[in-house]
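Figure caption, in words: inputs first, then the predicted bound structure.
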Amino acid sequence: MKLENLSRRSFMAFAAGGTVALAAGKVHAHDGKVATYPVNDPNHPRDPGPHDPVREALNPDLVDPPATDSGTLPNLRFSFSDAHVRKGSGGWTRQVTQRELGISTTIAGVDMRLDKGGIRELHWHKEGEWAYMLYGNARITALDTAGGWFVDDVGVGDLWYFPPGVPHSIQGLGPDGCEFLLAFDNGNFDEDSTFLLSDWFKHIPPEVLAKNFGVPAEVFNTLPSPEEEYIFAGQAPDGAPASAVSGGVKSKQVFSHKMLAQKPLTLPGGTVRITDSSNFTVSKTIAAALVELAPGAMRELHWHPNNDEWQYYLEGQGRMGVFASSGQARTFDFRAGDVGYVPFAMGHYIENTGDKPLRFLELFKSDYYADISLNQWLASTPPALVRQHLHLSDTFMNALQQEKHPVVK
Ligand code: MN
Ligand code: MN
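Bound structure (manganese (II) ion present):
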């Protein structure tokens, strides 16, 4: 899209938003003092100084917040498209961590692409690693703490989870390798600081290596530089499936899971799939929901009683409103490839604002998924008590639903 088109769109979005804000201000008595800025006046432009219409067009709810927004809630959005890309001979990677999105203390995200045959080097780390396959096919390997080996092939919508300290690898398969999202159970995680096989070999005296493996020290004269590994071009395994791989003792644990193949909870307006340690046993530190919203549909008003929410937007566009208590609330716009964040217990909703499905992942540093529905809470509280709080009519009271509806339309 040309710049001038985006610029015009941005201006129109602002004008439309301004009208909505004015209406909202009239509806809510407590917003009587909210200023609504006059728009569409050529003699009095909204923002005559320097600004970036391309970025503003992507963030209409920042440029022209709903009248109900208030206060200094920190930034809750960061796009992987704004993250540094580290290239290797077999693919590339980028990360959105606490360093990019300061509020995201519980979880760090990594986006990785491996070419066919491309290898994410054998390694381990202190954090638990949860993954969602975004594209293509990959082969994963691991060794469990009982000495059991694990190999599996994964495709789009499949997960894996490697507990802290468990060594593993990932390799792109045919026809075109893979791309996947990684989520680590620590916002300060750094994908560049994992324990790499080649790095350790380079930092062990050859005579110690010789003693450990029972071979002459000269064997280690040709070790590669760790700089050449990490993500490096390799040979894809032959056509045999992972199930054909043989070795020592096979792990009794299953480190992969087919999340997209789960039968979803289906509601008017969308679907929800939930995966936590109740149906994916090894995933002890990450609980997840995969939500799909039809155009106009909304993830209902709710909050989570266990931990912060880390989001990854897979497809479409939407907006999220977050209530932080003490009269504070902010609204953020999201598109595919964005990370979103909701601090612990804050009330929120997510609305599909596009004309295509909106799909996103909700992740929690927790072994279980849980949410509290505002609607269900009010429906399950004595009506006389609720009436005295909100002063709303029978129309509202009769519409409350005791059954939870995570998606509404
Ligand atoms: Mn890893
Ligand atoms: Mn939520």
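The longest strand covers residues 129-136.
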